[in-house]
Design goal:
globular, single chain, TIM Barrel, 8-stranded parallel β-barrel, 8 strands, alpha/beta, oxidoreductase activity, acting on the CH-OH group of donors, NAD or NADP as acceptor, NADP, NAD(P)_OxRdtase_dom_sf, AKR, oxidoreductase
Length: about 300
């Protein structure tokens, strides 16, 4: 009988870090789904203080080539005029292998290629697009048609870690059953899970529980999408907003980070705001959540289910 959740190795259970040794960022700038030029958004975000970027090879939601150009500009000598002095080891870069159903032209691979070749071509394109020789986190964007196909894809991704091209692996859009099965079969377990935040499904509590037990970082996106708007009016969110003179959005970010820290969950939030003032406000959250009192955290957790 398969073991559902093998004990993590010491190396895999250690908290993920930047190349410079700093802990992975609680806020990562997300570049998906936007109409305005992304390069300007990314440069503005890093100028304000973000140090992580989430992108993907999929052309449906992302433009990895354009995102990469923004990174190249930031790392180039001309960025010194912004007085950023950013080095590669100071930036957290995560991208994804996207299956054919999520792709559009220009393809990073031939859809008729075997899955192993698709992944190898895709990571090579990502390295070129982003102008780097190592990716911090490489995500499998979604499961394949069968579990065995998903497992085969993961095994190819494991070789990228062994070769030093990728530092950590992650999986997106995963449910608890698939995550348990994957943990029972893989050699290199996922260091990250990236799922949509949905209030109505219990905030993904079963997946979060597995992540906490296994030392997997849980990364969420879509926090401020319409279906989660009810979170902003919750009493603890409004109370924190009044106490700290925060907007409801910032108060929600703070409470989610505080709740995760209180229960020992490694949490990261994708933040794709294009408003520079909102960027500044959101970046206050990682510093502010340590000041939140436990009764407020408990109240938020009870009401929200997070």
């Amino acid at each position: 009988m398969e073991e559902e959740s093998p004990a993590p190795s010491v190396a895999q259970s250690a908290q993920p870090t930047f190349l410079n040794g700093d802990a992975f960022p609680p806020l990562v700038y997300g570049s998906a789904i936007r109409e305005r030029p992304k390069q300007a958004n990314i440069r503005a975000a890093f100028r304000k203080g973000y140090r992580g970027l989430d992108t993907a090879s999929s052309r449906g939601l992302h433009d990895e080539q354009q995102d990469g150009q923004a990174l190249k500009d930031l790392l180039a000598s001309r960025s010194n005029s912004l007085q950023l002095n950013i080095k590669r080891e100071d930036i957290w870069i995560q991208t994804k292998f996207s299956i054919a159903l999520d792709q559009s032209d220009p393809w990073p691979y031939d859809p008729g290629d075997p899955i192993a070749l698709q992944i190898l071509k895709s990571i090579q394109r990502s390295l070129i697009n982003l102008g780097v020789d190592v990716i911090d986190v490489y995500f499998l964007s979604s499961q394949l048609s069968t579990f065995e196909e998903t497992l085969s894809a993961w095994e190819v991704m494991e070789t990228l870690v062994q070769r030093g091209i990728v530092r950590y692996l992650g999986i997106c859009h995963v449910n608890a059953d698939l995550l348990r099965r994957l943990l029972g079969r893989v050699t290199t377990k996922p260091a990250f899970v990236q799922n949509e935040f949905v209030l109505d499904d219990g905030c993904d509590s079963h997946v979060r529980s597995i992540c906490k037990a296994q030392g997997i970082a849980y990364q969420v996106f879509g926090l401020f999408w319409k279906h989660n708007s009810g979170l902003l009016s919750l009493a603890p969110v409004q109370q924190l907003a009044r106490s700290f003179d925060f907007t409801a959005q910032v108060a929600l970010l703070v409470l989610i980070l505080a709740s995760a820290a209180d229960e020992g969950l490694r949490l990261s939030i994708l933040d794709g705001t294009m408003d520079e003032h909102h960027m500044e406000m959101n970046l206050q959250c990682p510093k502010a959540f340590h000041s939140v009192q436990n009764p407020l955290i408990d109240q938020f957790r009870l009401i929200s289910g997070f």
